[in-house]
Design a protein that fits this description.
By secondary structure, the protein is of the alpha/beta class. The chain has a single domain, classed as 3-Layer(aba) Sandwich (Rossmann fold). 51% of the residues lie in helices and 10% in strands. It has a 5-stranded parallel β-sheet with strand order 3-2-1-4-5. Helix 7 links the parallel strand 4 and strand 5. The longest helix is centred in the middle third of the chain and has 14 residues. It starts with 12 loop residues before the first strand and ends with a strand. The mean pLDDT is 84.
């Protein structure tokens, strides 16, 4: 009997826009996950696109700033933009925010906290990354 293949341990969390929206709206499960990461010394990371999308979805009384105080926001510079565009083109998707999250999760070997999406998993598989997805 062969041993099951060992998968690399994820070393942190990457938040998609749904996670940021949930945190801004006080979702208890997401806050528990967020606090647990911080207590373990992990700084969750997100993309500039996820911040923009979350801000678009939130109302005035639901600021995303409180959430972002404990989150690293990756800048969308030229190198990242080209990488995300390449991932999106290879996957045949126009969901740049999703492609950015998958690219980030793959590159940093972190688990993604995002909406359930078979498409995200397919994009990750094309990168050779087994996406660990926590659904808000």
């Amino acid at each position: 009997m062969s041993r099951p293949e060992r998968r690399p341990t994820r070393v942190g969390l990457a938040y998609g826009s749904a996670a940021l929206v949930g945190l801004a709206r006080g979702d208890r499960r997401l806050w528990a996950l967020h606090r647990a990461a911080l207590v373990r010394g992990l700084i969750p990371v997100t993309t500039a696109g996820a911040v923009a999308d979350a801000t678009r979805q939130l109302h005035d009384g639901e600021p995303v700033d409180d959430v972002l105080a404990g989150v690293e926001v990756e800048v969308l510079d030229r190198e990242r933009a080209v990488a995300v565009g390449t991932v999106a083109a290879a996957a045949g998707t126009d969901d740049l925010a999703g492609a950015a999250l998958v690219e980030l999760a793959s590159r940093r070997n972190v688990a993604a906290v995002a909406e359930r999406s078979h498409r995200l998993a397919e994009v990750a598989a094309q990168l050779g990354h087994d996406l660990v997805l926590h659904v808000p």
